[in-house]
Amino acid sequence: MRLDIITLFPEMFAPVFSQSILGRATSEGKLQIIIHNLRDYTHDKHRSVDDTPYGGGSGMVLKPEPLFEAVNAIKSFPLGYLHQPKRLTAFMTPQGEPFCQSLASSLTHWDQLILVCGHYEGFDERARNLLADLEISLGDFVLTGGEIPAMAVVDAVSRLLPGVLGDAYSAYEESFTENLLEYPQYTRPRVFRGLEVPQALLNGNHKEIALWRKEMALKRTQIKRPDLLEGN
């Protein structure tokens, strides 16, 4: 998969994407992440990407022209041997669809994902209407810009792609996969400050371990996130 990010602050991404699982996946060619500076798609000497809102009000609004140029240019890039690649453009905005594990999973079916980071008072509505296939929000709160949400989307989507995680079952067993939080995890030592690892994990009976884990995941979800069980 190719992930393109349009941003006003491209320098924010290298420290995150060059580390850990994402860094390894990109270096091994299992994932391609390209960062684009929105100002590179302007044509005035000040490289202006924003302007005052019609109707008055505080703040600035991202202009439509550089957004259109950036998205259209990125969509024109060839993707290997794919004749008609499936491309999706998502705007990162507080008004978008709340991001969740099922949405992350659905995004893995695209060949190219273009994430556009919002800033200031947001996007000119014409860019939103004509360019965005999807709008994504991390939740009901406002951040300085769309860069951190874009990082979160890239991380969540990337770990679901084949070969990105070392263990093919790791992503399946994590929280939210079946609308359940993940079961408790333990490692050595067997006893720590008087607390012992549950006996069910020590007997080597894989069926019993699986049953215990499912029971604990259900119990944890009932206590911490009962809303996840409402649809079950």
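the 2nd protein, sequnce then structure:
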Amino acid sequence: FVLGQNSSLDPVQLPGGFYARGMNVVNRGGIVQCRPGYRCLTALPDGLLQGFHVFKPKIGIPIVVVAVSGQLYVCEFPYGGWRHIEGITMSSIVSQVFFQQVEQAVVSNEDGSITFLSNPKNLLIIQDGGFSAGVSFDGTTFEAQRGIGKLPVGGPMAWVGDRLWVARASRVWASDLGNPLAFVETQYVSGADSLVFSDTVTALATNPAVNTGQLFVFTNTTTSAVQAGVRARLLWSQTTDFQKEIFKVGCVSQRSVTAQHGYLWWFSNYGLTSFDSAAQTNVTSSLPYQDDAMTDSKARLAEDLSGVACAVFENYLLASVPHASNFNTHTWVLDQAPLKLGKNEPSAWNSFWTGTRPVQWATENINGRNRCFYVSADVDGVNRLWEAFIPERLDEGCPITWWMETRALNRDLPGKLKDFRYADIFTTELEGQVDVAVFWAGSYRGKYKRILTKRILASTAPFQEGVE
């Protein structure tokens, strides 16, 4: 099954190498297998789960910061519990809180002068969309940023060109150079205090393909590029196409924007797209969005897509979407490293994953190991911090239900009457107790009929010295 899942075609029309659909599976080298497991690190406080971020200080182990109903909580290594941050309150009714890690190299003094830090420090900036003052976190202290020339209230943020860019409604502000907490340059540099766009800004991102620093500003229907690598604000008005609309393709969710292999991915009103496919909209009348193979799940998405959350881990691209629910019940999985039959073959979609309802994803290297975290508003009403891609293919020690449906096998003679005789099922890498069921159905009509129910016990050898 080297080409992966494709549910956009009827199973009768699928060529060899595809399977029709799957749940909770991955596909490497053409072998369909159970997905890696999930492990719960800690239960979080009850309430509206608004998001989280893994903050990486200059020195020390990354810290997990979570927002629930306007309150902030910190989970420190090994992330088995949490503590509440007193004195900081954000909006308790907004659906999401925005996080952005930045670097501060300059400090503004009360007399208007600036001081360059000999040791720049990392900060985490937290916003609730414009309802409360922004908050900064340096790894130890949380501080609300209020006052003239301070951090403007806003929502989507990005750190590009040594400046913090903050969006609110249709406007975008840029911080002072090297100082994400100061916005006073416009007081002594001529020009407007913000950039203005045609509609409400839904997401900000850096273009990973441009080393000089380019900011992407998304609305629901457009993408604009800002030449954020021009460091001197005085030159902005003199720079050709400093702010330019480049695509008639927008973005519906800040959390859906992620970068992989030098390309930017995001979720538009049409579906999952990437920078190279969006660029083609300048020369074609149709958008070649990248999630056709997931049509079976995509056809039942909720109207509100503002909470779609994407992530990249190793060669996998994950997209958690609200399938038949207002929560992200399906996580689509795209594998960028399948066995390719030709250089123009697309990457292979694996399946959708279930079991939890991810709100936001984050990946980070901790103590030399890449780890993938997410927070989930689970179906039992409990908010939890999870880790994905656990080597054991178990969720919290429990077996994972998974399945795949092959293509129909009478494609060469459509409509020809056939009898089902038998099928060979090849399995590998079994461990412990494995329950297998096999069903078949006609290509055009008829329900699935069970033809095999089997329990396989594959003992696990204790490869230890002195043990037979």
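The first helix runs from residue 275 to 279. Helices lie at 275-279, 295-298.
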